[in-house]
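Response to reviewer comment R2.3. The reviewers asked that we include at least one raw input/output pair. We reproduce the pair for CTP synthetase here without editing.
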Amino acid sequence: MDRLAIYLAVLIGSCVAGGFLIAAFALDYYSIWAFVVCGVIGLIAAYPAGYWVSRYIKRNDPDFNHRKPRQSDGILPDPKAPEI
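Raw output as returned:
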């Protein structure tokens, strides 16, 4: 996962969870389970949506360099490495 996808996953996950929470409140669900369910939905949707939006942005950017960097050893990407 690249750096842009990580940032987008955080933003998109919170927006999705917030949208579902507003919908739950509009339907008169004011319990702790509404928060839990909406948070889980946001967590599940965050990674795929962030990755997809990141790929879409990079595919449509004419100035983006699409060279593949070397594989990283850890979970987080190397800050000195080029974007993938």
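The CA atoms of residues 23 and 55 lie 29 Å apart. Helices lie at 3-26, 32-59. Further pairs are available on request from the corresponding author.
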